[in-house]
Amino acid sequence: MEKRDYYEVLGISKTASDAEIKKAYKQMAIKYHPDRNPGDKEAEAKFKEAAEAYDVLRDPQKRARYDQFGHAGMGGAGGFGGGASMNMDDIFSMFGDIFGGHGGFGGFGGFGGGGGRRKPQYKGGDLRLKVKLNLSEIATGVTKKFKVKKMVTCSHCHGTGGEGDHSTETCPTCHGSGYVTRTQQSIFGMMQTQSACPTCHGEGTVIKNKCKVCGGEGVVNGEEVIEVNIPAGVADGMIVNVPGKGHAAKRGGIPGDIQVFIEEEPHPELLREDNNLIYSLLLDIPTAILGGECEIPTIDGKAKIKIEPGTQPGKVVRLRGKGLPAVQGYGYGTGDLIVNISVYIPETLNKEEKKFFESARTSENFTPNPSIKEKIFRKFKSFFE
After folding, report:
1. What's the pLDDT at 187?
2. Whole domain around residue 227: which residue ranges?
């Protein structure tokens, strides 16, 4: 099923402010929350759809990428951005500011508590890298290796943060529930809200014997060699997302991602326009008049093209399939290599050459015929339409 536009999902304009985005999402979340629509699969789907839209539009970088590339820029593993489907635990853990720090709405109008406590998971930070690619690498795709400094799981405690087998105990503040509850008057009546316990931060347990290496965090400074598979057809400004390879999270949480920013190196002879490549061929007058063969550059070498006798400046020769592929199947297949032909006019002539062209001036063959003039005029006019 084709995904809807994220702005349409939240019912906002493309110029909506951060506050408007958050307000629109909150209204959708309340309307389609599972506690308010028990057993309603359609409401659950809309709840997840709204969360996915909010996840992208609340983040300035993701939003800019979505505005430029649409859903094609939001691919999941190995793709672009974070448009993968979300589950309820993802939503409740990521948007605690919307849901009051806990999955359920508590006593919201009599709706339930979200099906029991969801133990929060820490989220590791994301990393950002930049890679320069030439057209040959873009045409075929490439694997790049990076040595990155980041937080890694503590090898001494294996990420638990505790020293020994019995290093944790039940939180004395929340008594193991992971959250605290408060009741207050609202426009809906008495409203019961739940938020993460300030002592254990929602875990339900506290560490009594902290790891001597990581100090109870479960992570330490380290480095890792990361392989990034960059698909063919990427363009300057795109971002390849590598899930789970960012900073390790505290105490066995969810690791962050790596965003690899693509920078395209300019080719000395070829210009890129979407998936097409453009080459400007400058012919000498004899070849333009008599015809012949010319060698032109391609991504992977050289190619010869035939020049027809009487070739006019502005003629275009198209080599099908010699351009760049569409990234991950988005677009219209492999592009073409487009050769724009110009004719070189000498700036100086010797006596013999000048005499030849003086004699040619009166020849009918050197006088432009009306059809050629009309064709050139139409091509010129098209630049301004």
Report:
1. 59
2. 121-155+220-265
